[in-house]
Design goal:
Chain lengths: ~290, ~675
């Protein structure tokens, strides 16, 4: 079921010894909306390296391949074991988690160079760091939670069959990394600029509004299916389907199926989208007749 | 009239539980975190969460035995009332998380499935695949998002807590923090500040912890006068996957599901593991601990794996220390429950652990120590809920919960108890904070003089500006961090020696002086990770020194703290019965003397010379009498016999008010050893 991951097919045929050092080309950008530029770094190869340890070496070295002083490359990471979703970036043209991008495997494809770019569907904060506020906003929009009465002790939750747990668990592993959105042709970048005299609150409100008009993306659609299948969550299924039929909802999906191909957790996103499509159709018809 | 506000720092399980509970009670919460809260380190917890359940109950289990396992596993170093309360809440907490939608694994009949974890004989652990921490965190994250959407919670993600703000009476009135994107420094007025910032694994360089686990927030409270308890108790997890950037956890659940630890009997046997016949494999945990086998408590498993490699020379590889953790004998279906962690191994090692035994070695994993916090006990020995003292540091208004408090795990934490303690402390701090706010009688933070906040902001802004103007050509913070990690890992992990600890302390002092001369490679004022890292590095030193000094002064073995010089060897089985009896009497005498001397919490505070000053505090052991921890010790039978006879003699004596408890603990001793 779990292949040695779609990323690196040629992992085991390393006939020749890996190089002693390699070049890393990083697409940098100093400020939001600023222009980007490439910077090259030389990194000494070590055992068990991943892209995170490469960026750590670059930060410690703070010198380009040409020996010029530079600032450490900014990037986002936390758990380093592919469960937190922070370190998403485009490595050798492919969106993925930097922590599970192993250097020796990347060097098999190209022994000379590793290329790092920020995701293109989110506004760049700096270098490889992007703002994924829109992604989290989508979870608010679709009400991705179980609306329990409260936190007092009310006994256990509903009985759940092993089969439905086995369906829910993979969907619940979504770590909001954004890979599915980067790969989606219908998900286009929304980047606003705070205007002069605009308060932070007003700017945030304007951003939310713009995000809500944009496509919610595969991750949010899949979360709707997760919560709508839960016995308690199902009680509010209609609200979530409403969100999916509103502007930026499921109708924006072009069925390119790129999302499922890049998901590092192998979440069956297209299955979720298919089910959501049927559920929203039924929901809309039902609402029409219930009027 | 101003409205009360609470600042929660850290959005892992503890911080989110507190936030959601406060929001439900109508208190406005500012939630601050270095990362989006959904990416907090709690996601890394794999195996599960402990509580008594309907099934184990019918096998003779109850809350009291969970309590007993926890304090026995922790070598009796934790105050007992909070632990008792926590284990009593266990079933309620699992039920709540179940209602919040956590996809716990199910039995064929649709009930929550349970597995067995280390340090207990019951299947007490509920789990969601092998990413239980992630699933619990997501459920709380979702609830907090619900409150955020409703407007009662405001999140400050990508913010760094710089320190608490204390008024002239030493009461915490808020905090200073910095936006990691814009680098803006601002103050947050708050009627209570709850620190929930997790462990400090980065002090050891590489560990199983996430990159946010620098301990800096805790250190900043320590610098402001908060006390730090039991710093020297650092849990080294027995099974981790070695890596260049971090040591990735291989959950205890791998052993809970039947995984076996072994090494080839022939040192560095070159054959592939599956070709080594059974007779030539040394299942050292099973042979040495026939009762608990591969599920001995973590400190013991760690030491055994460490010493089989270092002392017995039986490491699987020559250049790298490791042992086999073998799942290949288990049916594939049963391994599905472990999916998540096996995937991690496969992804990061490129080898399928279902086919080839994993290679693992211990790694720094959890800090039992943390900010000293108080509690109020009920006459029955539980916690008085809502009491103003619960979870509060020695600074009024400043609370600590989750891994960053020192309260629940004593000298060693049992597997699957951390998720429980995080959620528990998060839930109970909410009513306490409300009581505290009520006691302020309307004198809220919002009404404090602006000068209090302005001064705090100015101090931090000046410090920050000065850092950016540091001259070039100085020390490199990243390299200093590596050096610190090496020193700490060498001196203060599995085996500790006084001379090495003394040395390490001096080295750390020297390193701290060098760190003060760090140069920044980025002097800009936009998303400057260089300056943020350097600040965090500086704040690793006080905690590193608490760990080393606490370890140096504690001349005994307790839980995760192991000094061979002070270990108590077992009793030779070949001696005559009389001799064995005499030795056991001696053993128990030594044990009693040691308990008297060392069954005390280490409490560190920052001295005027900026070095930690250590005092000791008695531990409330009034509910379960501390007894020898005899997991697998040679001669345990005779020691236990002597021990029980003495206990019986003591309880027969008049004036024993805890009679019922002593009886119970004697029974528990019998069942647990």
């Amino acid at each position: 079921m779990i292949q040695s991951t779609s990323h690196d097919s040629s992992a085991h045929d390393t006939h020749h010894a890996p190089p002693a050092q390699f070049t890393v080309r990083v697409l940098r950008q100093d400020v939001p909306g600023g222009s980007s530029y490439w910077e090259r770094h030389t990194v000494k190869r070590e055992n068990d390296m991943n892209v995170i340890s490469v960026l750590q070496r670059i930060a410690a070295n703070a010198e380009t391949a040409d020996g010029e002083k530079t600032t450490p490359v900014a990037w986002d990471c936390n758990c380093l074991e592919e469960v937190c979703g922070a370190c998403t970036m485009v490595v050798n043209g492919k969106v993925r988690q930097a922590c599970s991008a192993l250097v020796d495997k990347l060097l098999v494809d190209n022994p000379e160079e590793i290329e790092l770019r920020p995701m293109t569907k989110f506004p760049v904060v700096r270098d490889l760091m992007v703002s994924r506020a829109r992604l989290f906003r989508a979870l608010q929009k679709v009400k991705a939670w179980i609306p329990v009465d409260g936190y007092y002790d009310m006994g256990s939750g509903p009985r759940v069959s092993a089969e439905s747990q086995e369906q829910a668990y993979p969907l619940s592993q979504c770590m909001s990394c954004g890979c599915c959105l980067e790969a989606c042709p219908q998900y286009t970048k929304i980047e606003l600029k705070q205007e002069e005299g605009e308060t932070a609150e007003a700017f945030q409100a304007r951003q939310k509004e713009a995000y809500d008009r944009g496509f919610v993306g595969a991750h949010a659609i899949s979360q709707v299916m997760l919560f709508n299948k839960h016995p308690t969550g199902a009680m509010n299924a209609g609200e979530r389907l409403d969100a999916l039929t509103a502007e930026g909802g499921i109708q924006a999906c072009g069925n390119a199926q790129n999302c499922v191909a890049v998901c590092p957790k192998e979440i069956p996103l297209t299955t979720s989208i298919g089910r959501a499509g049927r559920a929203t159709t039924v929901h809309v018809i039902k609402k029409f007749f219930d009027r | 009239m101003a409205k009360e506000r609470v600042l929660v720092v850290g959005g892992g399980l503890a911080g989110l539980a507190a936030t959601m509970q406060l929001a439900e009670q109508g208190v406005a919460v500012d939630l601050m975190s270095l990362t989006p809260v959904k990416r907090s380190h709690s996601v890394c917890a794999q195996g599960g969460i402990n509580s008594v359940n309907d099934l184990t109950r019918q096998q003779g289990d109850n809350e009291y035995l969970h309590f007993d396992d926890t304090v026995y596993g922790g070598d009796f170093l934790q105050h007992q009332p909070p632990v008792k309360e926590m284990t009593e809440w266990g079933p309620k907490i699992i039920d709540l998380m179940d209602r919040l939608g956590v996809p716990f694994n199910r039995t064929p009949e649709g009930y929550r499935d349970q597995r067995r974890f280390g340090g207990t004989l019951f299947k007490r652990t509920a789990f969601a695949g092998a990413t239980t921490g992630q699933q619990l965190l997501y459920a709380l994250d979702e609830q907090v998002r619900r409150w955020e959407t409703a407007g009662s919670v405001k999140k400050y993600e990508f913010w760094d807590f710089l320190g608490p703000i204390l008024d002239e009476n030493g009461v915490c009135r808020g905090a200073v923090a910095q936006d990691l994107v814009t680098m803006e420094i601002r103050t947050f007025a708050a009627d209570a500040v709850i620190v929930a910032t997790g462990g400090c694994g980065l002090i050891f360089g590489r560990s199983t912890m996430s990159m946010a686990c620098t301990g800096s927030a805790v250190a900043r409270c320590f610098r402001a006068g908060a006390k730090y308890g039991n710093g020297e108790f650092i849990q080294v997890h027995p099974t981790a996957i070695p890596g260049a950037d971090k040591l990735r956890l291989m959950s205890e659940s791998a052993r809970g599901e039947g995984g076996r630890v072994w090494v080839p009997r022939i040192p560095q046997d070159p054959r592939p593991p599956k070709q080594i016949p059974e007779a030539e494999r040394y299942y050292f945990l099973e042979e040495r601990y026939p009762k608990y086998k591969n599920l001995v408590p973590r400190d013991i498993a760690t030491r055994e794996i460490f010493s089989i490699c270092t002392e017995d020379g039986l490491s699987v590889e020559k250049d790298r220390l490791c042992v086999y953790l073998d799942l290949t004998h288990l049916p594939r279906e049963s391994l599905n429950k472990l999916g998540g962690i096996l995937e991690i191994y496969e992804k990061f090692q490129g080898v399928d652990p279902r086919e080839v035994p994993m290679k693992i070695f211990p790694a720094v994993h959890y800090s039992m120590g943390g900010l000293w916090v108080d509690y109020e006990r009920t006459p029955a020995g539980g916690l008085k809920l809502g009491a103003i003292k619960n979870q509060v540091t020695n600074i009024p208004g400043l609370y600590a919960i989750g891994e960053c408090d020192y309260q629940y795990h004593g000298a060693n934490r049992l597997g699957a108890n951390s998720l429980l303690s995080c959620i528990f402390s998060g839930l109970i701090v909410a009513p306490t904070v409300q009581t505290w706010i009520a006691s302020l009688k309307g004198k809220l933070a919002a009404d404090q003089p602006a000068a209090l906040y302005d001064a705090a902001k100015k101090r931090h802004q000046d410090e920050h500006n000065a850092m950016l103007k540091r001259p070039g050509g100085g020390e490199n913070p990243y390299l200093i961090h590596q050096e610190l990690g090496n020193i700490m890992t060498k001196a203060a992990t599995v085996v500790r020696h006084n001379d090495a600890l003394r040395d390490a302390y001096k080295q750390v002092q020297a390193l701290e002086a060098r760190a003060a001369k760090c140069s920044l490679s980025d002097t800009g004022n936009w998303t400057n990770q260089n300056v943020v890292f350097t600040k965090a590095l500086w704040d690793m030193f006080p905690i590193a020194k608490c760990i080393l000094k606490g370890a140096l002064q504690r001349d005994e073995c307790r839980g995760a703290h192991y000094k061979p010089e002070f270990s108590m060897p077992g009793i030779d089985a070949s001696a005559s019965p009389e001799e064995r009896r005499r030795l056991a009497e001696e053993w128990v005498d030594t044990f009693d003397a040691n308990t008297k001397k060392w069954l005390k919490s280490t409490v560190a505070s920052l001295g005027p010379d900026n070095e930690p000053v250590i005092t000791y505090e008695d531990v409330d052991t009034s509910l379960i009498t501390p007894r020898p921890r005899l997991y697998g010790l040679v001669g345990a039978d005779i020691i236990e016999e002597v021990w029980k006879q003495r206990q019986a003699a003591k309880s027969a004596a008049p004036k024993d008010t805890n009679g019922s408890h002593s009886e119970k603990s004697a029974a528990a001793a019998a069942s647990a050893s």
